[in-house]
Write a structure and sequence with these properties.
This protein is mainly alpha-helical. The protein is 50% helix and 0% strand.
Length: 80
């Protein structure tokens, strides 16, 4: 959440107004990009949560733009 608020301040815009390109910059195309783009106090394990938050809020649905994102088949999600 801190990362999201920090980016809102940096972009001078609420997250729901961000373009897909801005979301990719915030989330990072890979985990290495995410780590490189954010200061050390940002928890390095929050990228998947930020990705999920963006998707659930309807702000960013282009998850295929992240090469390291693995989408599980629906059958696997239902059987759990």
């Amino acid at each position: 959440m801190a990362r999201l608020l920090r980016c809102c301040a940096h972009e001078r815009q609420s997250h729901w107004g961000w373009s897909a390109t801005t979301w990719v910059q915030v989330i990072g195309q890979t985990q290495c990009d995410y780590r490189a783009a954010h200061p050390g106090w940002v928890d390095r394990t929050t990228r998947p949560y930020l990705m999920g938050l963006a998707y659930l809020l309807g702000c960013f649905t282009e998850l295929r733009r992240f090469p390291d994102h693995k989408r599980r088949p629906r059958k696997a999600m239902v059987s759990r």
